Every structure is written in structure tokens, then in C-alpha cells.
Amino acid sequence: MSQESGIVFQPGDQVIWWKQLPGGDYAYPVPATVLKVTAKRVQIQGDDDGQIVQRYIMAANLERPGEPRP
Hints:
It is a single chain. With 70 residues, this protein is an all-beta fold. Helix content is 0%, strand content 49%. The chain is built from no helices and 5 strands. The two termini are 20 Å apart.
């Protein structure tokens, strides 16, 4: 389980993925579901601008809904 961000994620967890746009410091929230957890990354599935996508994300870019981001 990835503990890089201090939060333990498990398959089925609902999360917010803070997607960063290329070339900028701006990030926007994308609701997603955890599919798999590896040693370094978390596999998620979410609705990114109308398309269902699967991505491997560093845990530091995820948070649980309703929990403030450090």
C-alpha cells in the first residue's frame, strides 16, 4: 500500500486526483476510484474531461474527498 503521502489507499476507495496541466503550476480536481496500489504509484480510473481514463498516479497527487490537502 502506498504511504508516500501519509494516506493509505486501497482498491475501491473514492479519491480526488489533482491533475496538473503541462507547463503550469495549476492543478484541478478529478474524481476517481482506486483500482490497484503498487509500491510507488496508485492506479486510478476517473472522468477526465468527459473521458474515462486509467492512470498510475503518485499518492501525493491524491486525496480523499472532504480531507484538506496539505
